[in-house]
TrEMBL record:
Record-given protein name: Methyltransferase
Residues in Methyltransferase domain copies: 60-154
Source taxon at top rank: Bacteria
GO terms under biological process: methylation
Length: 250
């Protein structure tokens, strides 16, 4: 599962018993050598799907980690790309690994996705693999924050992979992981929020609509289709058209 440059079991155990922020600070130097890093195939498929929706001037990678998504955005945005994450360790790795020679300017901001320090500054926001760190009850606030940092007409985009079926070993692996995390969080503080099965597409689409987005789904063809014909991977494209209900931001 992990290569020779990845974290050892003891390091993962220490991370899992830390807070989310401190855990990722510890994992940051070896994060790119773990399965938790978004595969290049996903990054490339999302970038390809976004090209016809542009052009984009300013982009934001929400919960950017070590910067793989920021790197993808530099090929889509003409003026600036910003990565925001609450782990100082992850941002430090990102600053050293993403240094485009030309193209848009790149900035790194330490911040919480639930309280973003921007207002209507971007026409594209993306996120890769971060939503397991948010509880379902936090999604309305999270999506309201994203809505507030987008300009009218701006897009919030992220990939969603079809969940494995119960007949597949991956289904039981993810179920077991979530069960272990729930037990851990019931017995240990601070909590480490990381659940693979809590981000359900039907619920997410409803929350995006309530936040003021118009949503479209695009199949990512490089991942093929399941036996019932449904895509194995989709791009969620949520477009800001008006302020969210109760929002004072335009």
């Amino acid at each position: 599962m992990f290569g020779p440059e990845g974290p050892r079991l003891r390091e993962l155990a220490v991370q899992a018993l830390s807070s989310v922020e401190h855990g990722y600070d510890l994992l940051a130097p070896k994060f790119d050598h773990t399965p938790f890093r978004t595969p290049d195939q996903v990054l490339e498929a999302v970038a390809e799907a976004l090209v016809p929706l542009g052009p984009f001037e300013d982009g934001l990678d929400l919960c950017c980690g070590t910067g793989a998504g920021v790197e993808a955005l530099t090929g889509l945005c003409r003026r600036s790309v910003t990565g925001v994450d609450f782990s100082a360790g992850m941002l430090d790795v990102a600053r050293h690994r993403v240094r485009p020679a030309d193209g848009p300017g790149v900035a790194w901001v330490r911040g919480d996705a639930r309280a973003l320090p921007f207002r209507a500054a971007f026409d594209l926001v993306v996120s890769f693999g971060a939503f397991g760190h948010f509880l379902p009850r936090e999604l309305p606030g999270l999506f309201a924050q994203v809505h507030s940092v987008l300009r009218p007409g701006g897009r919030f985009a992220f990939p969603v992979l079809a969940p494995p079926r119960p007949a597949r070993p991956a289904f039981w692996a993810l179920l077991g992981f979530d069960a272990v995390m729930r037990v851990r969080n019931a017995l240990w503080r601070p909590p480490f929020v990381m659940y693979y099965r809590a981000f359900r597409l039907t619920d997410v689409l409803g929350e995006l609509g309530r936040a003021g987005f118009v949503v479209e789904l695009h199949a990512l063809p490089g991942f093929g289709r399941r036996g019932d014909g449904s895509p194995r991977a989709r791009l969620v494209e949520a477009r800001r058209t008006q302020p969210a209900a109760g929002s004072v931001n335009s």
